[in-house]
Amino acid sequence: MITLIAISRLTSMKGNYRIMKNKRRNLNITKNRMRVALLLVLATSTIGFAPAFSTSAWASSGSYSINDVSGNYVWHAEGWDLGGTNGKQRVPLSAVGLVTYTPATGTFHVDLILRLDGTTFNNLRDGTYTVDTTGHGTMTWLSGSGNAKQIDFYIVNGGAELKWIDTDPPGTAVLSVSGTMTKQ
């Protein structure tokens, strides 16, 4: 209350009124200032509690499991690979397809339409996946040539999306690919 009284004394008033001359006017001003102060306290309290209810707070609480990634997701990716006439040039890569996750077995099946350096390929693969309590997951499989492949992802919007990046082991040809998988 001392702070509100001090603020009311510092605030200029319209006209040349003295504080004690018009008690009714002063009483209304004080009531309005109290209402504004209470609204500010309420708004600040509400803003302070908001992070506790956000989905990003869930990620740090350790609430995710492999069951949060299940069913069909639409895969979309863009990036760069090695190719060209000598196999050492950067060439564009893009993909779209369907991934089916089965949490009971920790496996997935993917059917992709892959576009690499202007050529379209159909890519069918099966592999395994894991999800930890922070919402971080990995997918691993073997490429058509037998190379180990891996991507790392994070669960977004309660499992409605997965944001991922290619994290193949060293020695593979992919330069950089990332994308989103959206729950179908």
Task: Explain how this protein is built.
This protein has 184 residues and is α+β, with helices and mostly antiparallel strands. The protein has three helices and eight strands. The protein has helices at residues 2-10, 23-49, 55-60; strands at 71-83, 89-102, 107-116, 119-131, 136-142, 148-156, 161-166, 176-183. It has an eight-stranded antiparallel β-barrel. It has two domains: 2-53; 66-183, Lipocalin. The model is unreliable at 49-54 and 56-60 (pLDDT under 50). 23% of the residues lie in helices and 43% in strands.
Layout of secondary structure:
Elements: H1 2-10, H2 23-49, H3 55-60, E1 71-83, E2 89-102, E3 107-116, E4 119-131, E5 136-142, E6 148-156, E7 161-166, E8 176-183
Antiparallel strand pairs: 1-2, 1-8, 2-3, 3-4, 4-5, 5-6, 6-7, 7-8
**Number of self-contained structural domains:** 2
Name the shape in a single word.
elongated
Residue runs with pLDDT of under 50 for 5 or more positions = 49-54, 56-60
- CATH topology annotation of the largest domain: Lipocalin
Structural class by sheet pairing and helices: alpha+beta
β-strand number:
8
Number of helices: 3
Q: How does CATH name the architecture of the largest domain?
A: Beta Barrel
**Rg, nearest Å:** 29 Å
Percent helix, as a range, is 10-25%
Q: Could you name the CATH class of the largest domain?
A: Mainly Beta
* Proportion of residues in β-strands: 35-45%
Along the chain, the helix and strand elements come as HHHEEEEEEEE
Physical arrangement of strands within the biggest beta sheet: 1-2-3-4-5-6-7-8
CATH superfamily of the largest domain: Calycin beta-barrel core domain
